[in-house]
Specification:
Blueprint: E1 8-13, H1 17-32, E2 37-42, H2 48-57, E3 62-65, H3 81-91, H4 93-101, E4 109-113, H5 120-125, E5 129-134, H6 138-153, H7 188-203, E6 207-209, H8 213-225, H9 227-230, E7 237-239, H10 256-262, E8 269-273, H11 282-295, E9 298-302, H12 333-336, E10 341-344, H13 350-354, E11 359-364, H14 368-376, E12 381-383, H15 390-400, E13 404-405, H16 418-430, H17 432-440
Parallel strand pairs: 1-2, 1-4, 2-3, 4-5, 5-6, 6-7, 8-9, 8-11, 9-10, 11-12, 12-13
């Protein structure tokens, strides 16, 4: 059934639902809208969430799983997620090369996702065109590609600076908003981050970004035209977004979460979720529970057990939380909130939830997929960034698009207290301001 006339595109995806989902969206778009033959070379940790995403798209694109082998001697449990991903994707190169070489019909194009840029030289071995797909904002792309310059020009830790970082043609970036890998320049993940930015502009024929002009026109323009930035970003950049999931109204089985939402009044429920990997400390979990209770708003909370002080404690295990009611919440919380709140401990049907008429707000960690899904559903946000580039996204949501509120302190610096949570929830769900935000979307 292989049509020899069709261009064949192979796309490499790195572990993490926030990476896999945009790759599958890109693959699906290329296959259904542009009628290309698409193979996704998926490096995943085999969670049920990843499996079901792969299953859902297997009818339009080819999926080849890339084995990783035993990584235990290479991975240090104390290393950051970005370091883990870099090590995994370096290791995956052998499997990627074998997979391509075993294909009856060789690809014409190789697209590497942001963590697999070291696979781009494989394209040269097979004489393929090569692109990197960064499913992030132009804000992030300008920062990661320009980081090689900052690395030379800026002395000391970025986070110790009071002056924002200047990126040519773009709005300055507050030092407290830099992505996690830039927080400590002595950490391995910083070296990986600088290296990735260099890879993007030296190893690829072009950079695809999941963004679009209405979302951040000025920075897209700068990436394409600003002379100083172009002297670093020498390859073409393409704003191909928004690539975001559609609600699956015809979904086979109605989730219990949706059944519960069906019974709630229109616009009355605050959806609370920290993406596929986000976790809160025990203290922050208690404050959040108490804040929700004080606010007297209805809520649907995708909840995970605290993992020490880690903010990305579920990154590699997305949606595989322990069964049964959480035992780490304030005493009596479950009983007192049973009529207004639903706690969800596994993978949630997020897109269907955000498109449900009962949802009136979204307390989100600001992963870019979640931000797009929220905007698409017309749902205003409480921006609660935790890790990766989420602080950058939060500032777009609250300061540029003005479709969200955020706590006075960064949740990664200080525990957000219950009173502030109560206030934000009321502001979003009950006030005129919340209504305006909803209209803006
Ligand atoms: N997601 C979901 N159910 C969950 C948690 C996450 O469907 O219980 C989806 C969410 O809709 C989004 C993706 O997983 O599409 C997470 O990507 P995002 O960029 O928001 O954050 P990340 O998880 O990468 O931090």
């Amino acid at each position: 059934e292989l049509n020899q006339q069709k261009l064949h595109v192979a796309i490499v995806s790195s572990p993490g639902m926030g990476h896999l989902i945009p790759v599958l969206l890109l693959g699906h778009r290329l296959a259904t809208v542009h009628h290309l033959h698409v193979t996704v070379l998926a490096v995943t940790t085999e969670t049920s969430a990843a499996e079901s995403q792969l299953m859902d798209t297997a009818h339009t694109i080819n999926i080849v799983k890339i084995p990783l082998g035993d990584l235990s001697s290479l991975l240090n449990p104390h290393d950051a997620v970005v370091t883990h991903l870099a090590v995994m994707m370096r290791q995956a190169r052998h499997g990627i090369r074998c997979a391509i070489s075993a294909m009856a019909r060789r690809p014409d194009v190789l697209i590497a996702d942001l963590f697999s840029s070291e696979s781009l030289p494989i394209a040269d071995e097979f004489r393929l065109q090569k692109y990197v797909y960064v499913p992030c904002s132009a804000r992030f792309v300008s920062l990661i590609t320009y980081c090689q310059v900052l690395d030379k020009d800026v002395k000391g830790q970025y986070v110790d600076r009071t002056e924002p970082l200047v990126i040519p043609g773009c709005d300055p970036v507050r030092c407290e908003d830099v992505p996690d890998p830039m927080l400590d320049r002595n950490d391995q993940q910083y070296k990986e981050f600088v290296r990735m930015g260099i890879d993007f502009v030296t190893l690829s024929d072009g950079i695809l970004m999941n963004t679009w002009t209405d979302f951040e026109g000025k920075r897209i323009k700068a990436l394409k035209n600003n002379e100083i930035l172009r002297s670093v970003v020498k390859v073409p950049v393409y704003d191909i977004g928004p690539l975001t999931r559609e609600a699956d109204e015809a979904g086979l089985e109605k989730s219990k979460a949706i059944e519960w939402l069906d019974k709630q009044p229109v616009g009355s429920v605050l959806f609370v979720s920290f993406g596929s990997g986000g976790t809160l400390s025990a203290e922050q979990t208690t404050e959040l529970a108490s804040g929700l209770e004080l606010s007297q708003q209805r809520f649907l909370w995708v909840i995970r057990p605290p993992v020490g002080s880690s903010t990305d404690g579920a990154f590699f295990t997305a949606g595989t939380g322990p069964d049964g009611p959480p035992d780490y919440l304030p005493e009596g919380f479950l009983t007192r909130t049973q009529n207004v709140g639903l706690l969800w401990t596994t993978w949630a049907p997020q897109v269907e939830i955000l498109n449900h008429r009962s949802i009136g707000g979204f307390l989100t960690h600001c992963g870019l997929n979640s931000v797009f899904e929220s905007i698409k559903g017309g749902v205003p946000m409480i921006a609660w960034p935790l890790y990766a580039e989420q602080r950058l996204n939060a500032s777009i949501v609250t300061e540029e698009m003005k479709v969200g509120v955020r706590p006075a302190v960064l949740p990664t610096k200080k525990v957000v207290g219950r009173e502030e949570i109560e206030k934000m929830a009321r502001r979003l769900m009950e006030s005129e301001e919340g209504k305006k935000m909803r209209e803006r979307e």
